Automatic annotation (TrEMBL):
Pfam family, one: Phosphoesterase
Keyword Signal found: yes
Biased composition (Low complexity): 378-392
Organism: Tuber aestivum
Compositional bias of kind Pro residues: 393-402
Gene Ontology BP annotations: phospholipid catabolic process
Signal sequence, renumbered to the chain: 1-19
Descriptive protein name: Acid phosphatase
GO molecular function, one term: hydrolase activity, acting on ester bonds
InterPro entries membership: Alkaline_phosphatase_core_sf, Phosphoesterase
Region Disordered, residue ranges: 350-414
Gene3D superfamilies: Alkaline Phosphatase, subunit A
Length: 437
């Protein structure tokens, strides 16, 4: 793994975005904490998670969208998992937008806090505990760094930090308005158990629930990436709590159908954002929010038959390739249209002939694959191709993952060149600090 220069690290740190204060309909801050690989019954029966549920609302029909981990994380911020059926070092092309684009479009600050990530903006595949060599940070649980539109932009990488910096930002009252928190591989239950994950989550949240700054108008979602038993429906626990949840509904259960795309749709509804034109558009908004935004919470036609346990073909599928899906730029939900930059990138009749998105609640799976559909412009409906044909004109095929060779001592600049580089670095950092102060 190539080590970044101190200059680059300082530059990235200097670009960190300060907190914003954009008012939402129900909440002004959204915090999501993701735990790992636990069946619904086990998670619901954990005493610490049960304690948290009594402080808010239990979502009893919340579903992951496939297996394994990485595609679920990607789906929660991208409105799609692009056929991903693995935890590889996948890199989503820069023409694929995410929740970061939606938030920035309205001036809403965002950040990710990753336990045991070695430094701000780290893009490597993993980082182990240096004493025990145990699994610690893993890229597959860091959703936004998987998008090249984030990983290739230093200003955005500056928003992806080690979890220890959460407490610094909390003390400075400088937390972003959208926060994604990933515990390490021990704390999240991946390498341990739901007992460990529940205990960690309660110990993390309990003091925050008494913090006025953190709690004010904050909605917290605690959930799991996927269930553990792949032969069972992919239902996981979801818990809503925080200052945005009225005490009158503490300890209640919401039985409506939700999935990981509901995270994005709820954010879009709350702040009246644009959409990505993908599966975010049709996803149910959490009823706590939908009741205020007048979004319709739709009923699933067959809750007992929801089986989202295997990925459909796509550009990141190991065995079954399919073209990069095109957002439906004509979709509109409750007055929310598709992000203009997405329309600019993906609009036009030829691109739109390939869209598979129609604003439906019920999403595809390996058994019920996405189909190119007739949209509002009257294009014909055809089955999607799974053959190894060229990429669609709108996007490149799956890029080959590559971390690049480690930089050797012989390849580093020496002598006067290192001196000049250091001087340039100092001026760069000074200019960046001045720009962001």
């Amino acid at each position: 793994m190539r080590s970044p220069s101190l200059c680059l690290l300082a530059a990235i740190a200097a670009m960190a975005v300060t907190a914003s204060d954009v008012k939402g309909r129900v909440f002004n801050r959204f915090v999501t904490i993701w735990l790992e690989n636990t069946d619904y019954d086990k998670a619901a029966g954990d005493p610490n998670l049960s304690w948290l549920a009594k402080k808010g609302i239990l979502l009893s029909n919340y579903f992951a969208v496939t297996h394994p981990s990485e595609p679920n994380y990607v789906a929660s911020v991208g409105g799609e998992y692009f056929g991903m059926n693995n935890d590889d070092m996948n890199k989503l092309p820069a023409n694929i937008s995410s929740v970061a684009d939606l938030l920035e479009g309205k001036g809403i600050s965002w950040g990710e806090y990753q336990e045991d990530m070695p430094y701000t903006g780290f893009t490597g595949n993993e980082y182990r505990n240096q004493q025990t060599q145990a699994n610690a940070y893993v890229r597959k649980h860091n959703p936004l760094v998987i998008f090249n539109s984030v990983a290739d932009v230093p200003e955005r990488l500056a928003n992806i930090k080690n979890l220890t910096l959460f407490w610094s930002d909390l003390e400075a009252q400088d937390l972003p308005q959208w926060i994604f928190i990933t515990p390490n591989m021990t704390s999240d239950g991946h390498d341990t158990s739901v007992t460990v994950a529940g205990a960690w989550t309660r110990s993390f949240l309990e003091p925050l629930l008494a913090n006025d700054y953190f709690m004010k108008d904050t909605l917290i979602l605690v959930t799991f990436d996927e269930n553990h038993t792949y032969t069972r429906p992919n239902r996981v626990v979801g818990i809503l709590l925080g200052g945005a949840v009225p005490e009158s509904v503490h300890g209640t259960t919401d039985n409506n159908y939700y999935d990981h795309y509901s995270e994005i749709s709820t954010i879009e509804a709350n702040w009246d954002l644009h959409t990505l034109g993908r599966y975010d558009v049709g996803a149910n908004v959490f009823s706590l929010v939908a009741n205020k935004t007048k979004d319709v919470v739709r009923k699933h036609s067959n809750l007992d038959g929801v089986y989202l346990n295997e990925s459909y073909p796509g550009i990141f599928h190991r065995k079954k390739w399919a073209p990069q899906p095109v957002p439906n730029t004509s979709l509109n939900i409750n007055g929310r249209s598709v992000l203009p930059s997405v329309v600019k990138t993906w609009g036009g009749d030829e691109n739109q002939k390939q869209t598979v998105y129609g604003g439906d609640l019920e999403i595809p799976s390996a058994a019920n694959r996405p189909k190119v559909r007739k949209n509002s412009e009257g294009q014909s409906s055809n089955s999607s191709s799974n053959s190894s044909s060229p990429s669609s004109p709108s996007g490149p095929p799956n890029p080959s993952p590559s971390s690049g060779p480690s930089q050797s001592l012989d390849s580093r600049p020496s002598g006067a060149m290192r001196y000049l580089s250091d001087i340039s670095c100092i001026w760069l950092v000074v200019l960046l600090v001045m720009a962001f102060v």
